[in-house]
Write a structure and sequence with these properties.
Blueprint (H helix, E strand, L loop, with lengths): L6 H36 L4 H8 L3 H8 L2
Helix pairs in contact: 1-2, 2-3
Length: 67
């Protein structure tokens, strides 16, 4: 049986928690970007321009707006 007080196991648990937090933050950031992309296209900004400014491909823009 492993000794749960090992510093390496504590460091591993912290790294896992940090990674999980980073994943959640990345998901929130991606959702925010997606909303901004959809809004820009909805008001008439060309897909290619939206893609360039958002740092994604035009096909990603099309997927996000449901085309």
């Amino acid at each position: 049986m492993l000794d749960e007080s090992l510093p390496e196991l504590k460091a591993l648990a912290k790294a896992r928690a940090d990674n999980d937090r980073a994943d959640r933050e990345r998901d929130r950031t991606r959702d925010h970007l997606r909303e901004a992309v959809v809004s820009a296209v909805a008001v008439g900004v060309p897909e290619a321009e939206v893609a360039r400014r958002a740092g994604v491909t035009r096909m990603t823009v099309r997927a996000w707006v449901g085309k």
